[in-house]
Design a protein that fits this description.
Elements: E1 3-9, H1 16-26, H2 32-43, H3 60-65, E2 72-77, E3 82-87, H4 95-102, E4 107-113, H5 120-131, E5 136-142, H6 151-168, E6 172-177, H7 201-207, E7 221-230, E8 233-239, E9 244-245, E10 250-254, E11 259-267, E12 270-271, E13 275-276, E14 280-285, E15 296-299, E16 306-316, E17 328-332, E18 335-348, E19 355-356, E20 366-378, E21 390-394, E22 401-407, H8 427-434, E23 439-444, H9 451-464, E24 469-473, H10 474-477, H11 489-508, E25 512-516, H12 522-532, E26 537-541, H13 546-552, H14 557-562, E27 584-585, H15 593-606
Parallel strand pairs: 1-3, 1-4, 4-5, 5-6, 23-25, 23-26, 24-25, 26-27
Antiparallel strand pairs: 2-3, 7-8, 7-15, 8-14, 9-13, 10-11, 10-15, 11-12, 11-14, 16-20, 16-22, 17-18, 17-21, 18-19, 18-20, 21-22
Helix pairs in contact: 9-15, 11-12
Amino acid sequence: MDLLRFSTAGSVDDGKSTLIGRMLYDSKGIFEDQLEAVTSASKQRLATGIDLSLLTDGLRAEREQGITIDVAYRYFATPRRKFIIADTPGHEQYTRNMATGASTADLAIILIDARKGVIEQSRRHSAISALLGIPRICVAVNKMDLVDWSQDVFDKIRHDYLELADKLGISGVELIPLSALLGDNVVVRSEQTPWYQGRTLIEYLETVEIPKERSSDKFRFPVQYVVRPDLNFRGFAGQIASGSVKPGDEIEVVPSGKRAVVKQLHFFDRDLPEASFPKSLTITLDREVDVSRGDVLVKAGAAPRLSRDLDAQVVWMDERPLALTRPYFLKQGSRTVRARITRVLYRTDIQTLSEIPTSNLGLNDIGRVRISAAQPILLDPYAQFRRTGAFILIDPETNATVAAGMVAQDQPESSSDVVWSESDVSRVSREARNGHRGGVVWFTGLSGSGKSTIAKALEKRLFHDHRQVYLLDGDNLRHGLNKDLGFSSEARRENLRRAAETAKILVDAGFLVLATFISPTAADRALVREVIGDRDFVEIHVSTPLAACEARDPKGLYARARSGEIREFTGVSAPWEPPANPLLELPTHKLSVPESVAKVVDLLEAKGLFAEVVEVPGGGI
């Protein structure tokens, strides 16, 4: 008999655990001692009968609350097929567990309460199922007995869900009206639904075609362990993630690029003439090459694209929201590297499935992000490579898994695919000629706070002191370099990214760059800091209160924002997040411009930006 892995998902009280209990009970898939234990536990909750949900709700907290918290795996069989069930939580708080349970499923059963129809959790679970590439979806419309077995109710849910499935790109959908509590259309066909001529749930599970797990013909073998029992044997153990291999094949080690020929394929006490996905085995090579845990063996000449930069779809699983300032570990197969999320491209709105620009993701959010890793990783698209195209992000402080990720099909042009052309004149040589270090003084604050006024006065002061200095103004950039950008959240982040990259080039030329940008969120400023680097970044908060800024209103922007003429205006209709730990605060409603300039000069002096740079002999031109 073949094996079908399926997961269940749905909102709280949709009846997932009861449905599984019914399948186990009616198909005689439980042992007598299990039945006795559940019968005993049921007496504490029910006057008569058996609470079938207790067959899967194994945690004490689950039984007490009557909800599923953890993923419960159960095995049962019928005369036609064997099954492994992952009963996943329905409560929004535990959606991350649903993603975990569904990650290896061939099929997902999405439960919908007939009284409620397609709700937000139905959409979220369906979106995650589509994201994970689950090829079959069975929609169990439960509690039909509570709507008098109405065909109209079922047809409405069918229409709404098929519309959702079409938007998500899900094609293999089956809908079944049933009652998990009473057993109608679960194992036994119901007399209450003469208008339904389809299969019962068990009939569907027994006969649905099990799609072969996606596997590209391209060979991928992530090395999990180096086997070295003695000096005469060195093999590489793991599971084939894609494709096939045989002795005599020339392989390449990723990421080192070293090549060798497969000598033997070892499986327990015998050798194999060939092996293919998803076989676990040990591979030996014809010569000694450096291969370690985390490396991937591929066919020579068919190496995957490698990059330190990638775009990916993620399901955020941590109660702490995503932070661009926080480092993470990226674990892809058996390889773990340091990484940062440099941009959040968008969040998927579960109701409309539209892409909403945002700067962060919270618990259970689904979105697309851009990641920069410390070392090159495989860019196998998840759609073709389910094993090597998936990864998780881990918080290095707590060791908690914070996100599940899928490598996107389309990738940005990566900086790691382009080699930086070093100038024959070094930055140190330029700084030595200038007589001071380069750096970026980043002025952040509300519109009208006085950023530009202080920066202009500071530029004049530094220029007269013979410093190489340049004022980088946000409005000026929008007249040229950034004239193609609008004022959406995404466009504003791109505006800041370009500004930061421009400032970085000027710093390499030895300049002191004075940058004046509102940069309203912590994520925005973290992006800028990431581009420029901590050593060269000086953050100054021009901390003039909103009331004072609005009273000045030098450009008349606040008046236009209050009247609704300008939308998404920082401090009025868009959020403003003051810096938590700036190097300097300048409350210009209390300080004069000369006083503010003096404070900045003192800060730059203390940070050593005015110190004379000594050029190392031979290290300049």
